[in-house]
Amino acid sequence: MDKYGILKHYFGYNSFRPGQEKLVDAILAGQDVLGIMPTGAGKSLCYQVPALLMSGITLVVSPLISLMKDQVGALNQAGVHAAYINSSLTDNQIAKALAFAKQGRYKIIYVAPERLETWGFLDFATHVEISMITVDEAHCISQWGQDFRPSYLNILSFVKKLARRPIISAFTATATSKVRDDMLQILSLERPVILTTGFDRSNLTFKVKHIKDKDSYILDYLVSHRQDSGIIYCATRKNVEKVYDMLNANGLSVTKYHAGLSAEERKENQDSFIYDIKPVVVATNAFGMGIDKSNVRFVIHYNMPQCIENYYQELDVPEEMERIQNAYCCILRRIL
Hints:
Blueprint: H1 3-11, H2 20-28, E1 33-36, H3 43-53, E2 57-61, H4 65-77, E3 82-85, H5 91-102, E4 108-111, H6 119-125, E5 130-135, H7 155-160, E6 167-172, H8 177-186, E7 193-196, E8 204-210, H9 214-224, E9 229-234, H10 237-249, E10 254-257, H11 263-274, E11 280-284, E12 296-301, H12 308-313, E13 321-325, E14 328-334
Parallel strand pairs: 1-6, 1-7, 2-4, 2-5, 3-4, 5-6, 9-11, 9-12, 10-11
Antiparallel strand pairs: 8-14, 13-14
């Protein structure tokens, strides 16, 4: 089966979207790639299609458990044998998954970056054929690497421990020239094919209006949109707690997420948001990275992002969006 057969048989598409085939062909030719493609451009297919045509295993380094579960679930439903390795599994479950992988059961394995540093996973990786390592949400290496997932910075160290260097592919939704250069350098991509399909999203329009009282505005907005799910971003943990307490005191169904919570609390709160037990989450800005939740209708920024690039990166939410920047409100509306 060729690339077109894979595309049709497993994913149901008759043709590639703009840019996809260029990256697929480059990977199949043994080249490293960097794909900077906005949400909806189909980044996943760029590595999933060639992964099914190569002889070995493709490791996909991914930052969020919920995203891994979604991707692996979709692949298995499509008939592609895939697995994920992260902290949500017990040691026995991980050992079983790696044993199946050694037997050739899985073509694609999603893995948390921290897992690459463990002896057990490294032992597995050095005894199987790894055709490609894909780095998803690759801007973590530069933009949030130090704060959000430090282990992203150690991916190259893992690669150097392998008997043979696999193809390295990296993907992100947006990247400034500095972030792009960081990804190329830190991952040590070799003569990569670089594709940027553009940042404009025709399904969004931008409006600006003056806001005098952010707390009142947020409260009024949530009261009038009780049926909607959304994210409120804050720059600090202190502000997360402040906004959460204010909304909770007013009887709204909200949860919170930041690095100061225990791992158990973060998992419980994230699941509450993902499964609409608490449809609104107040969080620091790393939370939304890679969240695959189809019914998100708004995103509000309580504090201004550090720069316009951060702001644009955080637009990576699939549905109707709304953000507050200090005294101004930028409204981004999906055109259906």
